[in-house]
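Task: complex structure prediction.
Instruction: return structure tokens for all chains below.
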Amino acid sequence: MITVEGLTVTFGAVHALRDVSLRAETGKITAVLGANGAGKTTLLRTISGLVAPQSGTVSLDDRLLTRQKPEEIARLGVGHVPEGRGVIAEFTVEENLRLGAIVAKVPLADGLAQQYEAFPVLGQRRKQHAAKLSGGERQMLAMARALIARPSVLLLDEPSLGLAPLVTAQLMSIVAELCASRDLTVVLVEQNASSALRIAHHAVVLNVGRVVADAPAPQVAADERLRQYYLGMVE
Amino acid sequence: MDSFLTSRIVTDILNGLTNGAIYGLVALSLVLVWRATRVLNFAQGAMPMFATYLGMGLLSYHWPYWVCVGVCLVAAFAIGGVTERVLVRPLYGKPEINPIVVMVGYLIILEAFAAAIWSTTPRSLPAPFSPIDWRLAGQPVGLSPFSLFEVVTALVVMGAIVTLFRFTRLGLQLRASALAPEVSRLLGVRVGRMLTLGWMLSTAVGAVTAILVASNFFTGLTPQLMDGIFAFGFIAAAVGGLDSPVGAVTSGIALGVILQFVGDYLNSNAIILVALVILIVSLMVRPSGLLTRSAARRV
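Output:
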């Protein structure tokens, strides 16, 4: 479980996050929604230690993560798939996965076999450079690379960005399946609210750095005002 | 056959390979630091020189030769690591000129300190193997046990570095830290340590080179020991591509052979001139280096 309390982040004079509190339950998908510049990515980057908050805390279960280095937070079991995927293009598919397995406690061969089973396309292309992969394949690689370390928390930043609707739907169902089968805590940041709400259990809506809604996903999906003003879901 | 092996051409090739192996090693150490931290280390010759003084100085206290070599390597690791932590770390993310200025300053300071402590008089180091050329039918071959040792050492060091980078977990982390530091940290790689390790490795490769150079009877160990060699190693790295260890080594060896022929057949004063022409032409034709795959970089 990830608990965020009173998080405020500023970049110079700009408030990226103002007094944000939320909770992502174990075994559940928590969607973080909102328009461009709402602070979604900053929230994830603060959880994983890339951004230092002005005030407020982030904890994993009972352990305080605030002010720890990103590499140490990763070693505690927080997997972060960054926006734009962060796949290392110069590495082969397998090298990317080996890198993800650096902190894994299971043997490398088992981890690789597991990911190739979950994402067969990666197995077929294991010796190819990641630069050669399509957008959807890269997203799968980025997810597999985070999962091979067996994290307890998975932070996904805009996984649907630039993907075709069909691929997005496929990815979302993989996320839902993983969350259920591995008891993962998933924080899913999305601009594409409708596809995220389809699989999320809970949803938090951010607007210019503030939480404007924090409710079960169906409730957010049904809220006409939220849909119109913050989620851009106009029928 | 004998006369061919002792001919002028073969002798030049063998001598060129020996020199080229040294240039290749210097180029390799430059590439290691460049890839890890995007710093062009102008003190790449001076740092190992200092380590060599520290280790080889113990010869005066009758320490065994190979133990002194070990001390040189340990000293090089330490100097490389401390330099990265103290001097280089504050420069990350700053304009590219900053590290250049700092490292040139560092070069001058190291050489001045070495001269103050150990004086500028060359110290002769015992060569671990005979530097006298083998002979065939009374003619020298252009290859001595020591020059063979130089070439073999260079190949072993290069092989070890390539193996480390390509086939080990540590090498994977070193490469990842250089290519994508932020992503690496998100995957739990301790990037800071990897960068320090890159500098340590590079300085140790430099120390191996410096010992080989200083063991040459005609050079001896001086504070300016690596200045000339650095220039050629730098040219080799720039020609081969600062991102490519294999390219740096290959062009180091090629440069050694070419310059040997220039010195023998043309004029030994033309060596530097030809080296600079090679550098300029290759920068004009392939600015990113002959063997780099990466796209053009902002200059």
